[in-house]
Amino acid sequence: MELWYTEKQTESFGITAKIRETLVTEQTDFQKLDMIDTEEFGRMLVLDGMVMTTIKDEFVYHEMVAHPALFTHPNPKHVLVVGGGDGGVIREVLKHPGVEKAVLVEIDGKVIEYSKKFLPEIAGQLENSRVEVIVNDGFMHIHDHKNTYDVIMVDSTEPVGPAAPLFERGFYQGIFEALKEDGIFVAQTDNPWFKADLIQKVNRDVKEIFPITRVYAANIPTYPSGMWTFTMGSKKHDPLQVDETQIPELETKYYTPRLHKAAFVLPKFVEDLTK
Fold it and tell me: Which family does the record claim for this protein (predicted)?
């Protein structure tokens, strides 16, 4: 007998993967959490029926959340990751030696616990001495830490359940206030095929708050449609003005210095969503 997992990405479309084994299934205080081992993508974290990360393709998302912002800011020392309990973004942040402290604020401690157990390749840096892990509401942490961070990264689920407030204008205003005078923030903003209205809304809200707003994209096969967008808001530094020849090579699998600006070159139908 074959077992298959299907994520219904819309009411009429889904992605399916053959399962070797179900490792965890649990209703946490915040969401339904499943950890499954798949034939094609290896171990997979699923929250509320949505694929969050897999061993095979996780590097794309985590690298593209972290490195464009960190190489745009000239001297990022204090970094906040909201969400991201699997630890992948933290792992990438720590590849920047100038970062003195990386704070992870994850609302669901079970995500951290099971990621450490079943996704050590991703979560392996959560106990690094430069990392502080806080199990709490990221929205409230932002509110309570004015003028604190150089870079803030929002690694959230889609805007349902506990992540819904992380896509509201008030949250972006709070991020602006939590950043220092030349701070930068970046958030994942879903895909243009099924969530075009979300990209437009976030882009509009961020533009009203930040003087520099840019959208970029990456290819992540297990995320809806495969094309995924990220929105960056910056108080001072423009990612398109970065001298890519000065970006050092890191141990990465997707992000490169040449890709830094190229990621911001969008297909016209996506670019139109940002106007």
Answer: Belongs to the spermidine/spermine synthase family.
Rounded-to-integer distance, Cα 30 and Cα 204, Å: 29
Domains 3-54 and 58-274 share a fold: no
Alpha-carbon span 81 to 85, nearest angstrom: 9
pLDDT digits (tens, 9 = 90+) for 110-167: 999 999 999 999 999 999 999 999 999 998 999 999 999 999 999 986 655 555 665 6
* 157 marked as part of a ligand binding site: yes
User: What is the tally of helices (H) and strands (E) in the chain?
Assistant: 9, 12
Other Cβ atoms closer than 10 A to 262: 11
Catalytic site includes residue 155: yes
Catalytic residue among 155, 190, 197, 272: 155
128 within 8 A of 101, measured Cβ to Cβ: no
- pLDDT over threshold 80, residue 54: yes
Instruction: Count other Cβ atoms within 10 Å, centred on residue 139.
Output: 20
Domains of the chain, by residue range, sit at 3-54, 58-274
- 144 is annotated as contributing to ligand binding: no
Q: Which fold has domain 3-54?
A: Spermidine Synthase; Chain: A, domain 2 (2.30.140)
Tell whether residue 106 is among the known ligand binding residues: yes
Which residue in 72, 122, 126 sits closest to 103, CA to CA? 126
37 assigned to a ligand binding site? no
User: 113 by DSSP, 3-state: which?
Assistant: helix
The residue written with tokens 């030349």 in the block is 182
∠ CA 198-202-208 to the nearest 5 degrees? 150
CATH of domain 58-274: 3.40.50.150
- What pTM, to 2 d.p., does this model score? 0.95
pLDDT score recorded for residue 163: 52
